[in-house]
Each structure stands twice: as structure tokens, then as C-alpha cells.
Amino acid sequence: MVKVRAARPAEAEDLTGLVMRSKAHWGYDAAFLAACAPELRIRPDDVTARRVVVAENGRGELLGIASLEGTPPRAALGLLFVEPSAIGRGVGRLLYRDALRRAVDLGVRRLVIDSDPHAAGFYRAMGAVAVAAPGTGSGGPALVRFEAAPVPLADWARAWTGGGRAVHLGNVGEFNAQFADATLDPEQRPAHHYACLAAFYSPYPAALVLPRPVPRGWTELVCRQLGWTGVEVYDGLLDADPGLADAVRARPALAGLLTGAGLPLVPWGRTRPFGRLAGRPWRPGELRYESKSAAHALFGRILADGGHPGIVLPRQWRADGRWAAARMLAARTRAGESTVLKSEHGVGGSGTTVVTPERVRAAGGARAVLRRLPRGPLLVEEYVGGPASGVDGGPRDLTYDGFVDDAGRAHEVGGAVMDVADGCYLGATVGPGVVPAWAEKPLTAFGTAVGRALAESGYRGWFDVDFVADGAGRLAPTETNLRLTGPSIAFMVAARLDALRGAGHLVRIADRVELGARLPEALLDDWCADLARGCAELGAVFVPAIPTAAFEPAPWLGVLVAAHSREVLDAAEALVRAEALAVGAMFGPPSPGRARASGR
């Protein structure tokens, strides 16, 4: 076990030796090393003045050294050297992250790093951003200057779990099942895959509780990428029934362990069984605004009070039956109007269908269109028109995320841009500058108003409000989700990476990246590790978010990528998608009869 501690003045000579051995590791000649020696020498007085720390193993052997120099708000990572025999074992990463944490505690907001060119790849992988080069060091090769912006964990993230770690309950299937929606898979198979997102229900979990078994290599990689330690995983708790909370309660020892540690329990969404597990009373009707018609009515009441000129509400009608829906759809088709058909519930767009007049005619009429949709009540909604790509070529689908804490206070998390095709959610991007300037103020103001209304109604927990841009600089709210969401996962990861690697991360979650073939579990682990290294070389972070679907007959993977710039983010996503398709070239097309090679 490697730990970081303050260096001691008596260790100055040994630390100087470590630094010189580490510098020599890169093949510099004796003359250059002799020229560097005065600059790299550590004196006893330097240990305190330069805030020197060391990394040591369980036997007390020194493995690395780092210094944090200067005064806030600007400081420098003056030294970061690793014993050659320990290079590649995570010591440098540990020291760098410790330096950022200490910088935050000191009030440093700009950390400067003048890197040896051989170490430039390391700092890029750690999230530092390259800036203008400072020149050479001791007459040698040009140094590479990087900067990082140390920040504490975001205020909203601290409020979400009280500033500490939490137990995450992946009860996606349980949440969906309480609505009995005809558009959802009754076996909840996709829901159990999406339960893997429980890894990211807060920025730093203490335990994950999952319905299906997950690959051990997946949890190890996620922990390494996000700097987590000591995360307990309790998986494989269900065979078919979606009631994860009841499955935990059926194991008294596990239930006592999870609820008795004093840590908050964070579910995907609130359910009656979760209330019993958490000892939290279930409030009748607290999820009523998960209903699309109830949410629409709530939006109308908020707009009736005024103060939201940038928001427009599409008209919505409830069809008493399929014949009534067919008549409404036919009338709108004759008028040349497109229509959105919605079920009361549904996830990821599963209950939403956009119907154009052309589509109705091609299907043979309104009744033919409706026959192809799942049974159940339908809402008929006005289609919000506009350019396919939104205002001035910008995003068309946006969302606002927030939460209501147990005391009834609504907290703003932020806005995101969603990737939506034909009403189906595909992913989202969060981070600085993602929401266009014209949309930021109305989106935030209306999302905040919804949060206050939800708090007054008695709801407690995460929520989001989805919007579509009408092409004229206005936003139309379409639904609320009273649970965690894909964008919320991206926000959690962004908060963690900002605290771990410096402020300003853009994070993109891609719900479903198709794989060219199924891989054995061990090879999937290796493939994901290779992708993590490839993205790190770009200065990006790759995190596999949903691994279990990779073993389906038609395999896919949910992924997260993060970077400090849009260009690097796009490059990382392109790399992941290209490598995912290339899997098929190595192993051939998926076959429904091919067994999962891992045997799990």
C-alpha cells in the first residue's frame, strides 16, 4: 500500500538521490545531469519551504517526491519525480492528485507545471492543459508548460450526499416497474443493464448494490479512472424480479451493513420498497409529476404566473381511447401538422413517437400508425417545429438538472445538451459553454421554478426538465424525470474529475455504443484498458459506464468520455466508436447462438 506523507528534513540527501535517478532514467548524459544537479538538489530547509511530500510503500521505502511551491492564488508543481523501479505503478498519479488536493486547501487557483518533455504525456493524461512553452532547463531540451485549475468539489455535489460518500442502489427496474407502462420491457432486461450506472450516482461511492453480476475488471478500471478506493460491490442480487430494495431487505445482514453505516442511500429513483429499506416514509403521489400530463399541467401553472418570456408550452390533449387519438391525429395530418404521441410514462423516449403527415400517409392512415404503437393511454401533443439542429445550428434538445434535498431546498446542478434522434435519447454532454448563451438564462430560470414547485409538492430527490428549442430562440419544456438520468451521471463524473484533475471538464455520456462482436470478459477488460490509455494520450478520460450489455447477442456498451476541450472530447468519442466497430474485425459478427466465453 503506497501512501503520501510530509517529507522530513533529514531525508533531504536521500530525496536528492531519488530525483537524480529519476532524471537519469530518461537517458540524459552525465554532463547534462551534472548541470541539472544544483537546480534539483533538495536541502533540509527546502522540505518545509517547498512543501515537499513523499510517497512510500508499506516497508517505508521512498518511491516518489513532489513539491508545491509559491503562494496563492498561483503556485507551481516544482518537483514530481518517481523512483525508476516504481515508474508505471501509479505513484506519479498519486502524488499529482495529492498536489491538486493540497493546492485547493491552500486556496491555489492556478497550478503551473514546467515538465520535462519525457513527462509531457503523463501530465496530459492527468488533465493538465498545455500552454506556451517556458524554454529550456539547464541548457537541455525545451520544457513543456502545463497548467491546471485546482477546485474543491462543487457545492451542489457536497449538498447531494452531505459532503461524504454514499451507498448507491441500482434500482432502475424497480423504479420503472411501479408505473406498469406498456412501452417498457416487462422483464426489465435493459433496466438491469442501466443499473450499472449506479457506479456514478454520486461523485464518490462507498458501495454499489446491483441486480446483476458485473465484471470485476470493470469496477477496478472505473475506480482507477476516477480515483476511488475502498468501494464495496454487492452484485448479482436478482434473477428476474425487478425489486432490488426488497432483495436487499431479504438479506438482513446485508441490509444492516448498508443502512447501519450512517451513509446516505442513493437510489436511481424513489419507490415504496426503497422507502422501507431506507426507513423513509413513502409519500402518496410524490412521483405524480413523473406523469407527462401532470408535468405539462405543472409547466402551464408556472407559466401562468409570468416571468418566463423565453419559454413556450406546446398544446397537449389526452385521448380517451385509441379511436379518439386516431381522430386527433388524422385531423392534424389533414392540416399538415406534425404530432408527438406520448405514453404517460416511459424512459429514454420509449413512450414518445414523432409522427409527420408523410409518415401517416406512408403507413396508410392514422389508425395504421396507432396499431404499431404499444397499447395504453396516449397523449397527443403539438410538435415544436424548428431547424433539426436548433437555433443557428446549435443544439435542439436541452435539459436542466437539479435536486430537492431532504429539508425541501431546491438545488441547481446545471444545464446539458442531449443527443436525441426521433424522440429517442442517445446521450448527453455537460460542462462549461455546452448550453448556448441564448438558452442558458431561460433554461435555468424555468428549471429553478420547477424545482421550487416540486419541493412544495413534497418531492425529494433528483429531477430534470427536458426542453426542445423551437428555432426562434425559445425553449419548450416537454417532461420532468423524477429520478437520476443520463445527464445526471455526466454531472457526477464532471464534479469528480474537476476535483481530481482541475476545473473545466466536459463530459459526454453515450448511452449505447454498438460493438462489432461479443468479447470474453477478460478480453473486454483488456480492450477497455487499452481504450483508457488511448484516450489518455489525447488528454481525455474514458470510463466504461454500462459493461454488462457487451455480452448480449447484439452487444453494446455505455460509455463516458471527458476532456477539457470540445476538440479533444470529440476525438475521444470518435476513437471509442471506431475501436468498438473494429472489434468485429477481430472476432467476427455477433451470433445469437454464441455462448458468453467467460462462463459467468
Binned strand content: 15-25%
Main pleated-sheet profile: 8 strands, mixed
Mean pLDDT: 91
State the low-pLDDT regions, or none.
Answer: 590-600
Cα-atom radius of gyration: 27 Å
Structural class: alpha+beta
Helix content estimate = 25-40%
- Count of extended strands: 24
User: What overall form do the CA principal axes indicate?
Assistant: elongated
The N- and C-terminal alpha carbons lie at a distance of: 30 Å
Instruction: Supply the number of helical segments.
Output: 20
Protein described:
The chain is an alpha+beta fold and 600 residues long. The protein is 36% helix and 24% strand. The chain is built from 20 helices and 24 strands. Strands 1, 2, 3, 4, 5, 6, 7 and 8 form an eight-stranded mixed beta sheet that branches. The protein has an eight-stranded antiparallel beta sheet with strand order 21-20-17-18-19-22-24-23, with helices on both faces.
